[in-house]
Design goal:
Distance between the termini: 79 Å
Largest sheet: none
Number of helices: 9
Structural class: mainly alpha
Radius of gyration: 21 Å
Number of strands: 0
Strand content: under 5%
Length: 208
Amino acid sequence: MAERRAYAPRMDPEQRREQLLDAVLRVIVEQGVHKVSIDAVAREAGVSRPVIYGLFADSDALLRASLDREETAALAQLAAAVPIASTGDPVRAITDSLEGFLTAIRTTPDRWRAAFMLVDASTPTFRRRLERGRRSFIGALEVFVREIVPPNSEEPVDVELTARTMYALFWEAGRLVLAEPENYPPQRIRAFATTLIPSLLAFRHPSD
């Protein structure tokens, strides 16, 4: 007698949807976005094709839903990383935010591996989505810099370039903690940022 095929455990539609989107993310990270298909996701999730077609019309709809979910979550994590000027210690505010952002990346590594991968790959739609988040984050950093730079500073600060440099630090640090976590733990990056940020803002850290 032929062995009966194991069926996927029953789930409510929302649980199943999240399971499938998790599987899409794993396919993107492990095989590349071009490998996302109904068959690939079905294998990854351990379900049959009809289970997927019960929730998504085709592989494009499946991919779009996954990118929508990950974009929303990634942008929320970026927004949470914006430092707050009212803390009283600008350098501490930035380094706290940076370490918090890196910790968030380490707790959701596949999301950010996909983000870094898709920004570099030929996926213009996703690049445009992240570009909006990038501009918003840089704009928030510009507001932060304007609020904390001493009004009578002897060394004028280029607010726009300072904000972009801070953004580059956040973004590249995120890549490093995923690519080489042993060499670049968040604590090492934070210590470096503590020495870098005062020179960008043209003032000394309160502990100096």
